Amino acid sequence: MFPLAYAVVEIESKASWIWFLELLIADLGIQNGLAWVFISDKQKRLIPAMQTVLPNTEHRMCVRHLYNNFRGQHTGLALKHLLWAAARATTLPWWEAEMDNLKKEDADAWGWLIERPAKNWSRSHFATHYKCDLLLNNLCESFNAAIIDARDKPILTCLERIRMYIMIRMANRRASCQHWRYTVGPRIFNIIEKNKLASSQCIPRLAGEKKYQVSQLYGGEFVVDLRAKTCSCRRWDLCGIPCPHAISAIFHRNEDIEDYLDKLYKKDPYLKTYGPIIGPVPSIDQWPRSGLLAIKPPNFKIQPGRPRKVRTKEPGEVEIPAPVPPNPKPPNWKPQPARLRRIFIKIRCKLKKAKLQLLKPRLQLPKPKLMLPKPKLQLPKPKIMLPKPKPNPKLKPKAKLKSFMQISKQGQ
Q1: What is the pTM of this model?
Q2: At a CB cut-off of 8 Å and minimum separation 6, what does 205 contact?
Q3: Which of 95, 99, 96, 125 is nearest to 111 (CA)?
Q4: Domain ranges in the chain?
Q5: pLDDT tens-digit profile of 133-184?
Q6: For the chain, what is the radius of gyration of the CA atoms?
Q7: Residue 231 backbone phi and psi in degrees, to 5
Q8: DSSP single-letter state for residue 263
């Protein structure tokens, strides 16, 4: 995303859009409207303003906003897929086939869509010299999301924050480009790698003068002209990045893919685009006095209600909740009463007529007990071996004590 110009206006009207477009034409030096393409999400009064100021310029519509208007009368997932298939079709026969499928599915939906010019929303009718195949206006949505914190501030603060954001963004882009590993950006490199993988299903056959007839394994014949950098599928023509059919022909000649890539994706044009620097600005207390009258704010009318910070979502952006599945539980089953989630409140029990106080629930977990087996250490009992005393022959042996029974017998 490269922001070109932004303005603060009183209201979206034809006069304000004409004023903005005239300033944009003067700043960019637009003389030929056929060299420029504009894409919008059908803002109020923009289409008549474009027809007044730039009648020859190609004006495209965001397909997502087109589908939001489409689904208001024609709903269904099948119709959504058919509309997007018609928008992504790159050739006129493929677009006609998708429109026929839509007509078979719903004639009213086909009648609603056929009234809108296909050159505004389908790739099959886009011109090829713009090298732009975008169908969505996500760039403006990304910019709006980036400045959402500054939009509700006073006018000077709002513009200063937007200027600061753009200054830092352009500086970061210049710095990140110096660290590219290839001659193209990482996003373009990933697209080329994806097309390389798809080229394995293509078989090129040389016809002469860098012209090939490429056969696809799952059906389809395509004509590739490497000298004119075109393919009959028109994917290469629309965006400037070789399609899988063209990459298979390039591999057949053992040449480099980057030689056939459009120059706008190279590193030098990228640095040239982000070359201009948005200079820093000191605070307002350092500005010199001009001596002119102070600019007064315009008349402001306070709208009823609370100011909105989030834009109103369209029908396609609102998430529809999934239907509640049927209850598989038996009919006599009664759900348990829900727990009171408030804490430290007093309630009165009707049965006991006593006041109860709910305390903060505490999760009491049993203390883990570490049961380790007691070590059994069996040591051998020490045995002290003392030598027996030797009898002394000189000493007389002591007389043995007589028992009480023997003494009683002798007394009788």
Answers
A1: 0.70
A2: 212, 213, 214, 215
A3: 99
A4: 14-146, 186-265
A5: 989 888 888 888 888 888 888 888 899 999 999 999 999 999 999 889 998 9
A6: 44
A7: -140, 150
A8: G
